[in-house]
Write the structure tokens for this entry.
Amino acid sequence: MPPSRPPRANASRGPRPNSPSPAKAQGQDLRRDDAPRGRRGSGRAEGGSSQNWLFGHHAVRAALANPERTCRQLLLTPEAAKDWVSTGLTPTIVDRTEIDRHVPAGAVHQGVALLADPLPELALEDVLFSAAPDALFVLLDQVTDPHNVGAILRSCAVFGVTALIMPDRNAASATGTLAKTASGALEAVPVVRVVNLSRTIRQLQEADVWVIGLEGIAEKPLEAVLRPGRIALVLGAEGPGLRRLTGETCDTLGHLPTAGEFASLNVSNAAAVALYATRRVLAAEAA
């Protein structure tokens, strides 16, 4: 049996309202934040420009293939150019040191770099409007490492996540480093930036999304608190975990069962395990 909807005993919000009308469940009645809308490509480049240098074969090819991405300049080393398949943007052949100037120190760029504009902005209702009845969302609470966020994006793409939602502040920007780690997933998974994560959780709940916070100290395992329908998984930063208000606003909390004394996972690994478990349980219940 799926878990019931009562609010957590220590939660600050009141009882969950009744399920909304179909129009509201699709996000048509959701309130927009007063602050600037979130964006899939939000955040400034490593060098401080509004444009980003993306690098690495997968990230660059995915960006070039994305009709929503405006690409400005493609740089290739002579070695990379030998196997490059034309993408419509004429490359400039340069020495490896020229690409080194545009990417973070020590970046493994594979002789490929692309100057591109950020992706178009997205608001929460943009993704909720077309969300399926079994949509899956991932929310990150102050996860700032671009390598972690990139890896989480890659898992989101693999497991069919509807959108990744992060705060505007105290979160990783969509830089070349994040795109490289995401291995093309930045172009495939919508990313929504929001002003207030707790308010966003409440908006998701109004759209009939069951919101689960992942916490190692949670009483029940994740599989025990899953329920059919729209699901959102909320993950916090390594160490601090979820902020108090974030955890209290979630419908429930769940943990990933572990064995032995070494019981912690990197947040990107935890996201991958949680997404796999969620898809497996929901698929079994639907069968």
User: Anything to note?
Assistant: Residues 52-116 form one domain. Residues 1-45 have pLDDT under 50 and may be disordered.
